[in-house]
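Table S2 (text version). Query chain:
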Amino acid sequence: MRCASALLALSLLAAPPAAGQTAAPAPETPANPYAGLFTRWDGASQESMQAEAGAPQQDAAPQPDVNAVPAYSPLVPRSDDEAVALGRRVGEVVRTGNCAEGERIAREAGDFALVRAVRAHCRRSN
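Corresponding structure-token output:
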């Protein structure tokens, strides 16, 4: 009988509320203040793809020739006269004490041996 009374007690506890009684409303959870802080990567990727698809196509800049040699490149052979003229010009600038300008001219010409020489001279002078 003990089991029967225990089951009866449980069934009374689990009985629905009486007609006059109403269940209390569940408390509302506060809104997450960090909900909009993070962006999902799949959403960001999708948005960027949509934006790129809708953007007007811009004319691409012409690509340089793959085999082209840039101006003042050490790959371009210089005559001895051109090399001597460059060395004299840089030497005159460095002689006035403007080492930065002399180095800039040598670098622009693509003569990195001359750049190293200017740096070495200017270090010794200072």
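Notes on Table S2: Residues 39 and 45 are 10 Å apart (CA to CA). DSSP finds five helices and no strands in the chain.
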